[in-house]
Task: structure prediction
Amino acid sequence: MTNTFLILLPIALFLVMLMGLSLWAERAGRRNRFAGEYFLGDRSLKGFVLAMTLVATYGSVSSFVSGPGLAWQLGLGWVVFAAPQIIAGFLILGVAGKKMAVVSRAAGALTVIDMIRARYGDGRGGRTLAALLAVLMLVFFTTMMIGQFIGGAQIFSKAAGVSYGWGLVLFGAVTVLYTAFGGFRAVAVTDTACAVLMLVGMGALGWNILETGGGLAQVMANVAAAAPRGAGSEGVLLSPTSGGALATSLLLSAWVLVGFGTLGLPQSAVRCMSYRRSSDLHQAMIVSTVVCGALMIGMTVMGVFARGMLDVPLSEMGGTTDAVMPYLIANYMDPVTAGVTLIGPLAATMSTVSSLLLAAASAIMKDLVLFHRPEAGRNEARLRMTTRLMTGALGLLALILALEPLDVIAWINLFAFGGLELAFLMPLIGGLFWRGATAGGALVSVAGSIAFYLAVTIFKIPMGGAHAIAPCMVVAAVLFVAGSRLTPASPAKAIDLFFPRR
Result:
């Protein structure tokens, strides 16, 4: 048997398993109304599944490809940059989980945009805000999906020895199919399997690195020896700022970008509306924190360890840090172990894409089409077919756009992350907890902060070394408060729903 066959065998079994889980989940949800089942899994997730689907949605291919690759190049400084991700699951569920679940049930909300409409009303401002956020969601979700498909296909093709196009079509088609067919419940169940297999893939990678490198002590000694001087006695690779390559302001702004700002990610926030009981929420907060920390920090540390066994010039590995992990898997692992390890980044890609794809489909079907044409939802069979076709079409579009790969997926992902956080953090979380929030204030905040974010990113306006998200988030908050003070209050019905009198 050829090496390619041995590598592809565990991956093929993994893809078959995902399709089987999707079929099972779709059958399990047939007794429920289609819209509530397809977009929110009938609000029936248990604690462990809630935690794992949240982690799998948050953990993307950049966690397995770009993150470790940059850690290989920059050392422990990139681990410091990634550290705020530990709090993401606990923060999202702990801050927004309880109130979003209660209010969404009372309002009959199935999507994040439904929550926005319930909070700001159906007046002109509320409708404009909801439509704008739905469009921004589509733009940034499509950007993220393209990045995920590119990253997954690159590591698949380089490590398994198949062409980029075939790798993209193989796992991309499976992802689009099971998402379009199974809906939220299928995504949650397959996300759980993917999160577990991401841990397995990380474990296989770590074992191989340490075994090949001669153990932890030897690996770290090699890292220290490979580190150029310049950050004191410890060297650049062992410095928390990578010898100045990562400014302190950038490391601090990471707490906004991949830490507190994650409260504004709609693909994560919708999970807060999907669980059964408070006990499930509490269990998910603990499990997601442990698993998220293990994956996000673990994979980044693997990149540092890889420097201790893989002291090869970057030019020989493909000329980009995105090529480091595929090179390691292809050249330092036996075929079966390589196949098992590859399941990790593929699972990360597929779980993230499935959640983004479903949320994008909901933005079109539930938040735009059904809101403006409610009669389209009366024929459930037609609604079921149309929604699945729309989901499939969005996935196909992202696949086509991913045929021309770009480098450094992590920065593509972080750009879209920042855009989503600026678009949703103030309207959603601000509206959830501040009685004075208005549709006008939210509109001004979203438009102003996104415009500023694009200007800073496109024209590379210096921000003292910080990521653009930090100053842009300040702009968003100031505009949100000022705009809300100067525009008409939200409808009394919305205020009573979100802030009931005791």
Q: What stands out?
A: The chain has a mean pLDDT of 88. The chain has 20 helices and no strands. The chain has one domain: 3-403.
